[in-house]
Amino acid sequence: MNPEAIKALMTLLDDPEQEIFGPVAKKILAQGEEVIPFLEQTWDSSLNPLVQDRIEKLIADIQQKTTEEGLNNWSNALNPRLFDGAYWTSRLAYPELDANHTQQLLEKIKKDVWLELNQNLTALEKVKVLNYVLFEVHGFTNHSTNVFTLPSSFVHQVLETRKGNPYSLAVIYAGIAQMLELPIYGVNLPRNFLLAYKDPVYSLISDAPSKSKVLFYINPYNKGAVLSYKEIDYYLEQQNMEKKEEYYLPCTNKQTITRLIEHIIASYQKIGNSEKLNGMLRLINILNSNSID
User: Taking every annotated instance into account, which residue ranges of this chain make up the domain Protein SirB1 N-terminal (predicted)?
Assistant: First the structure.
């Protein structure tokens, strides 16, 4: 729609009749985020509380719709990049998030790791490089006082503050690793979240024993501590949980982002933010169904 047509729609935002405003709002929503500057300009020039309320609702609806469409497209991709899923998750709470700035921060860390890597290193030595760069050079650490603190759940904020929870730190750790083509993925462990360094040979064999598909496990919340399957055995025993095969296997990036969003939902529930909670629940539904309304 051309600018003049959009401006014409703006003049109808003060119509008190829902029969008139309803179709107008539908047309505005259909324009996507390109219409937001026009809405903001109209809000600034209007003294009508009805118009301002309608504009605020329209902007929020457009941003929610854009985020849902973005996450839906991401979840349907053949090999969805971990950080892109984290971006759409953050964007729900921070609709004006600067993706380019976040990408620059990631590229800086990636470069620092890449400079320390070489093809002669073993898998364990590569993880030691990752640990050194992330936790010593860049100073990432766990938010030990409260894992439900919301800023520690959004990856773009963790990149700024260097403090994260088990899920956001896992996304950053695995995301950087995958950018460098290191086979590190999440492990969908209940009430916790670890990473697995996939064995490049056995991980491709469908009937291989689950434990042979992983060289070792990594705990980003404890500065990248390396673990064996025995530690997972012990953890499950302590939690009185059944030792299911899925608790030992690498999960998909989609499952990792699902766990991140579930943790954010729990955080919103604790503070009683129903609006953001409902938005995150819609994102979970998208990941579970791969479709949007």
Answer: 102-261
Split at pLDDT 50, 70, 90, the class of 55 is: very high
Q: Which residue has the tokens 């479709």?
A: 291
pLDDT digits (tens, 9 = 90+) for 116-152: 999 899 999 999 999 999 999 999 999 766 767 888 9
Q: Output the six-digit token pair for 287.
A: 């990941």
Residue 89 has a CB neighbour count (10 Å cut-off) of 27
**How far is C-alpha 222 from the geometric centre of its chain's CA atoms?**
21
Domains of the chain: 3-75 (1.25.10), 82-289 (no CATH)
The CA distance from 34 to 117, in Å, is 43
Question: Which among 277, 253, 273 has a CA at the least distance from the CA of 265?
Answer: 277
Distance between CA atoms of 283 and 41, rounded to whole angstroms? 30
Q: 109-148 burial by CB neighbour count: b if 16+ within 10 A, else e? A: bbebbeeeeeeeeebeebbebbbbbbbeebebebbeeebb
Taking the C-alpha atoms of residue 107 and residue 13, their distance in angstroms, rounded to an integer, is 44
* pLDDT higher than 50, residue 292: no
Assigned token pair, 117: 């890597």
Residues 6+ apart with CB under 8 A from 133: 109, 112, 113, 116
